[in-house]
Design a protein that fits this description.
Oligomer: single chain
Strand order of the largest sheet: 4-6-7
Number of helices: 18
Largest sheet: 3 strands, antiparallel
Length: 515
């Protein structure tokens, strides 16, 4: 893809803190990232690099600049080899494996690293920031292996692929084609960087990969939270359930804010729906839906705080203070906050998948669905005997849910001592973020299946009880689904429709609730 059009809104690095939505917008190419034109921003960046240069001229000792890395910090680097040291750092970290991050994930990584370096405490040159800006502007995407980071000293191995690409090494995807980084840089008229002292560490010794993935995970989980609420409302209608379970006075008695919002959304969707006459109390997967979905809804603001604080932090080591002119050796590369957010988020999301799985089990079972056909089959007459409706879909949903639940073991408790016991306590934040994205993907698959079930279930209920009504928003969503999903009377393969629904969920096709 060519350089982003200037007609696309610009998001400025170096002016104000970024929000999760900013990183997502850059990842999806809905906006372009540009460096702040403010003279004071450039001055601050330059002062840090100039101070570091002066310190080196005065024989200062700086970890990773005049010494080796990690356990090799006691090794003094000869002055004539200092310029080679950062290039060796990204070279020997070229050992990542696993899948490559996709385009959205890679753009998010570039944005997260640029945000951190723009804080102005990493001792890098303005040219380095311009190099990252150019990768985003021209959509030159380093091929970054997903596996190989323990989350402290940051995302060293995956971020080495960013550092290498800036220097014209390794491979990228550019204009939809895999090519060498040197070729891609030449095509946009940029020379490879010669990294200055500390710049290898500044790029690699931070939490950009886990933070980028966390931003994307948060955005998808937030949408899943809303979609699960809408699906619950549709399933209450389909099963002729009791909408009074979401009464405002009831929820005022246990006023968790997120849980209360979920109940209010359900009341809005179910406005005008009469209670079924089969049961005084629906089973828990319907009656307690606000309590399950509300856990995630209540946790999201906490996750936002953790992720956005990390996103806007200087998180490499050592830090270069251009104001106090001091070198600060610490451990801000440790990704514990992201690890906690991702381990907890995947647990809450897996519970959404489990909730919807239980709702589907009720819908397809003629013993519990209040008069709907077995397996929600729309077949009638003699052909009903050979049609099986959503029988297999319910099996697949059970499989996806089980796998999501299996993935909820926290990664953060599996710290390993690495690198000659220098990195003897690590966060596993990147593994936690990757696990979280997998759980979200599985939950999205469950939601896609539930869109089919809800469309089928409500249509069948309206055949039985034509007076069944829906509020405007869920009704409009069902009408949209009906265009894509013909009523299932004769058995058909559903995989193509499921994939289309997955794309719709990822694109957040339906606007869900304006509180």
């Amino acid at each position: 893809m060519s350089m982003l059009s200037t007609e696309i809104p610009a998001l400025t690095f170096g002016d104000v803190p970024l929000r999760i939505e900013d990183v997502v917008a850059i990842a999806k190419r809905h906006c372009r990232g540009v460096l702040s034109p403010a003279p004071e921003f450039r001055t601050r960046i330059t002062r840090g690099a100039d101070f570091l240069d002066r310190l080196l001229r005065e024989d200062g000792v700086v970890y990773g600049v005049t010494t080796g890395y990690g356990d090799s910090c006691t090794v003094e680097i000869p002055a004539d080899l200092l310029t080679e040291l950062p290039h060796h750092l990204f070279t020997y970290h070229g050992c990542g494996l696993g899948r490559f991050l996709d385009a959205e994930e890679t753009r998010a990584v570039l944005a997260a690293r640029l945000a951190s370096l723009s804080v102005g405490m990493s001792g890098v040159s303005f040219a380095l920031l311009q190099g990252l800006e150019a990768l985003l502007a021209h959509d030159i995407l380093p091929l970054i292996p997903a596996e190989g980071s323990v989350g402290a000293s940051g995302d060293l191995t995956p971020l080495s692929y960013v550092a290498a690409v800036l220097c014209g090494k390794r491979e990228v995807i550019h204009q939809g084609v895999k090519k060498s980084a040197a070729t891609a840089l030449a095509e946009i008229g940029r020379a490879p960087l010669q990294l200055r002292p500390k710049e290898g560490l500044a790029i690699m010794n931070g939490t950009a990969v886990m933070t980028a993935l966390a931003c994307l995970a948060f955005d998808r989980a937030d949408y899943l939270c809303r979609l699960s609420t809408r699906l619950t409302a549709l399933n209450v209608v389909a099963i002729a359930g009791n909408p009074h379970h979401f009464d405002a006075t009831l929820f005022a008695a246990k006023p968790h804010p997120g849980q209360t919002r979920v109940a209010a959304r359900l009341r809005t969707d179910l406005a005008g729906c009469a209670a079924g006459d089969k049961r005084l109390q629906d089973r828990y997967s319907l009656r307690c839906a606000p309590h399950v979905i509300g856990v995630l809804e209540d946790a999201l603001p906490f996750f936002r705080q953790l992720i956005e604080t990390e996103l806007n932090s200087a998180n490499d080591n050592p830090l270069v203070d251009p104001d106090g002119e001091q070198i600060l050796h610490g451990g801000h590369f440790y990704g514990g906050h992201i690890a906690l957010a991702m381990d907890t988020l995947k647990n809450a999301v897996a519970n959404l998948a489990d909730l919807l799985d239980r709702q589907l089990a009720l819908l397809v079972d003629a013993r519990f669905n209040n008069g709907l056909p077995s397996n929600l089959s729309g077949a009638v007459g003699p052909r009903a005997a050979i049609n099986h409706g959503l029988k297999a879909l319910q099996i697949s949903v059970s499989a996806w849910t089980a796998e999501a639940l299996k993935q909820t073991m926290p990664a953060s408790v599996f710290s390993r001592s690495t690198e000659c016991h220098n990195q003897d306590k690590v966060s596993m934040g990147t593994i936690a973020a990757r696990d979280c994205l997998r759980v979200i993907e599985l939950a999205e698959q469950v939601a896609a299946a539930m869109l089919i079930a809800a469309r089928q279930g409500v249509a069948l209920r309206q055949q039985i009880a034509p007076q069944t009504t829906l509020a405007l928003a869920p009704s409009a969503m069902l009408e949209d689904l009906a265009v894509q999903l013909p009523l299932l009377a004769e058995d058909r393969a559903l995989d193509g429709e499921l994939r289309q629904l997955m794309e719709a969920i990822r694109a957040q096709r339906w606007s869900l609730y304006v509180d």
